[in-house]
Amino acid sequence: MSLFAFAPSRGPRWQIGLQAALGIGVPIAVMTLLGQPVLGYIAASGAFTVLYATSSPVVDRARILPLIALGLIICAALGVAVAHSPVLLNVGIVIISIVSAGLAFGYRLGPPGPLFFILVFGLSAAVMASSPVTPLVYVAAITVGCLFAYLVSVAPLLLPRVRAHRAKRLHALFPGPTWDVDARMLVLRVAIVAVAGVLLGLLLDPGRAYWIVGAAVAVVGVVAARRAAIQRAQHRLLGTIAGAGVYALLALLHPIGLWLALLLAALQFSIELVVVRHYALALTLITPLVLLLTGAATGSVGDMSVAVERIVDTLAGAALGAASGFLHPREHPPR
């Protein structure tokens, strides 16, 4: 994973990019037109459903994604429930991290692994703490967002040639649970960075611990290798710093309403085109997307202090994730 070269193409990504763009942009646009933009920002988090099982045939994704959506909704509900208790929030981050990692690695979920379950939990708590909506309305909004994202993902089934593909059994899609040496090591690393990230968050700001842990878990990734951890940490650091600069430029435009929906959709589409080929470049786009989305939901778009905090949190999380990679034995080059 070089900083100066793109990984080989794994095939066209525009379909996934379009689905993710619709998943995040349409809820915001619709709810903005209905006079409830905050509900649109919340529902837009459901677009994370699209990001799983992207290499699987649509007939298989139709079986996989409902479980992903259910997991995201549960994490959102739990985040809402502990939003006003810093102690429960931080305990929850550790528990969600370990449980989601255990399931993701035990059932061979693949990328992006446990990351978005952790982020949805933390984001839901952060938004709920300053949002005028009730917990029930929040959970209902993200449920609708996940449902819409699912429908967008399986829409190609309307084509006969797509439906003609034979679907696999659910057990074949989720083999396991089996925790081999690599899976156990990845779960251990997630557990370590979750605990360390929460403790570090207590020194910085308990409400930001989820971002530190999320950055660390993103570096852990889904590959059990020391070198991969160090390389992902480099991409994470540089991509986030560059992304904060992009956010600063976009924030000067003060995007709101339909313009914000279009901007987030464009960012999400672009992310899916490059994420499998150059992680740092993807993070240059992911960072402003998340900052804009959470800023819109909490009314803090354009607050550069938030961008600075995210850089600090990412530095801390990436360092934790990279350090945990040294738990893996050193890889010896082939003779």
Structural features:
globular; mainly alpha; single chain; 335 residues
Plain-language structure description:
The chain is mainly alpha-helical. Helix content is 71%, strand content 0%. Helix 10 (209-220) packs across helix 11 (226-251). The chain starts with 13 loop residues before the first helix and ends in an 11-residue tail after the last helix.
Helicity level, as a percent range? over 70%
Spatial separation of the terminal alpha carbons: 21 Å
Radius of gyration, taken over Cα atoms and rounded to an integer in Å: 19 Å
The structural class is: mainly alpha
Describe the sheet with the most strands.
none
Q: Which percent band covers the strand fraction?
A: under 5%
Number of helices: 14
**Low-confidence spans:** none
Q: Give helix and strand order, one letter per element, not per position.
A: HHHHHHHHHHHHHH
- Write down how many β-strands occur, each being a DSSP E stretch of 2 or more residues: 0
Number of domains: 1
Mean pLDDT: 87
Shape: globular
